[in-house]
Amino acid sequence: MQKAIRIGLLVAVVGLFFGIIIFNALNPAPPDMTSWNDKMTIGNAETAKHHFAMYTDIFCPYCDKFSDAVSAHYDSWKKEYIDNHNVLFEIRVTDMNYENGHSDNSRPAGEAAYCAAKQGDFWSYYYALIAKLYADYHSKGIGVDRYAEKIPNLDNGYFYDIADGLESIDRDKLVSCMENHETAKELDANTKKALSKTNGGVPYFVFDKFKTSGFAGNWNTDNDYKEVKRMMDAGLSTK
Amino acid sequence: MAIRKIVETIADRSKFALVSAGYLLKRPKYLCAFIVSFIVVLYIFTFFRDGDSNWQLIWSGLGIGDKLDVMGRIFPAMLENFTSLYGLTIVFLSLFQAIVIMQLIFAWRNREKNHALDGASTGGVGAILGFIALGCPSCGVGLLTPLLSAIAGASAVALAETISLIFMILAFGLLLFTIVRLGYINYIIISSKNYKEEHAKSH
């Protein structure tokens, strides 16, 4: 009897394991290579030879590691991939971590990102927000993985303050945009779309034919940039 | 009363298991098996700890040099496990698995194949559950996330965290159970061997 239970348990767990592997392999996210928001792209959409999209949530630590490394090496990254390899790089902002109960901050952060895009300078705002999150929380080990202390719920002021350091973003317009939830519909629609494209998790990268989830960085921007380059190179070389 | 007896039995067997593990670790052959198993298991767990990006890079169009680099950089990442709670969970999971493997080898070599097979199946289930529980399911990085998301949408991803935690606890529970069970059997084998040796000496 005991032996039968043990064999049953073994078969169930091994079956579940291989079931997950086979399911994940047989259900690749369908490609969607039209830009979702032109303001959230870098590169020339008309002439680009490659389209690399990153599905993200601003309160996803793995996503932030990737963007933090790109931001720290922006000039060389842009020259090598956007200019020399003619890549169109796009960030698809979602609030998946709000939807799945991981972080309430994802929603205002997502709305703020789309509000900044509305004012025409998503990238400055996005990188400034990532840098502030790093300085305030990630650098202290807060919100970096599943067992780490969680980032507390932030009020909208946290997201408004980013605009103060940026000439291209008008704080009053940002406040009005967020208070009136002017971008909430776009965020919701894109999160819904992302859920069907990413199998439910971020970061999810679709770099031409190279698709992957997760990011193996360690918050050391030089080390993480090597990883970013490796993933960009994988996107360029995978046929 | 019955509960007290069960607790006492578990405590006794755990003590014997510790003694047998200590005995095996003093033997170079088994120490070597323990160290190799620990490194291999820790390597595999670290490879998949932050999603499947390492795996996908190995299967991408990158050159062989880059792929070797991907595999090589897991070694420093293994050391980084010691700096966070999540990393330490992976270290302990690997440590327990390595003890199980060492105990299994000893039991197998001492003709306790049935017990060794039982231990292998229970320990194997523990290891697989631990593997499935890796990542950060609620942040969207984990083996379980795509399956749950396909079944019940975004709200199910919140469930992934709980399921993953249950799997992790089960994994540790099964590995500990196997260590105590096999350790106790090995203790009996070791005691019997020592008795025979002493008996042979005295005659």
General description of the model:
The complex is a heterodimer of chains A (239) and B (203). By secondary structure, chain A is an alpha+beta fold. Chain A has helices at 2-26, 61-72, 74-84, 96-99, 106-118, 122-136, 156-164, 171-179, 184-198, 221-237, and strands at 41-42, 50-57, 87-94, 204-207, 210-213. In chain A, a hairpin with a 2-residue loop joins β4 and β5. Chain A starts with a helix and ends with a helix. Chain B is globular and about 70 Å long. Helix content of chain B is 83%, strand content 0%. Chain B is built from 9 helices and no strands. Chain B has helices spanning 2-25, 28-47, 53-58, 64-72, 74-80, 85-109, 113-132, 144-152, 154-202. With 203 residues, chain B is mainly alpha-helical. The model of chain B has no long low-confidence stretch (mean pLDDT 82). In chain B, α2 crosses α5 and α7 runs antiparallel to α9. Chains A and B meet through α1, α4, α9, β5 and α10 of A and α3, α4, α6, α7 and α8 of B.
TL;DR of this structure?
The complex is a heterodimer of chains A (239) and B (203). Helix content of chain A is 54%, strand content 11%. By secondary structure, chain A is an alpha+beta fold.
Gyration radius from CA atoms of chain B, angstroms = 20 Å
Large-scale geometry of chain B: globular
What name does the CATH topology of the largest domain in chain A carry?
A: Glutaredoxin
Helix content of chain A: 40-55%
Work out the count of structural domains of chain A.
Answer: 2
Query: Structural class, from secondary structure content of chain A?
Result: alpha+beta
Instruction: Compute the number of structural domains of chain B.
Output: 1
* Overall strand count of chain A: 5
* Strands in their spatial order, largest beta sheet of chain A: 1-3-2-4-5
CATH class group of the largest domain in chain A: Alpha Beta
Gyration radius of chain A, rounded? 19 Å
What's the total helix number of chain B?
A: 9
What's the overall geometry of chain A?
globular
Biggest interface reads: A-B, 58 and 54 residues
Mean pLDDT figure of chain B: 82
Note the run of SSEs of chain A as H and E: HEEHHEHHHHHHEEH
User: From N to C, what is the helix and strand string of chain B?
Assistant: HHHHHHHHH
Category from helices, strands and their pairing of chain B: mainly alpha
Detail the poorly predicted runs of chain B: none
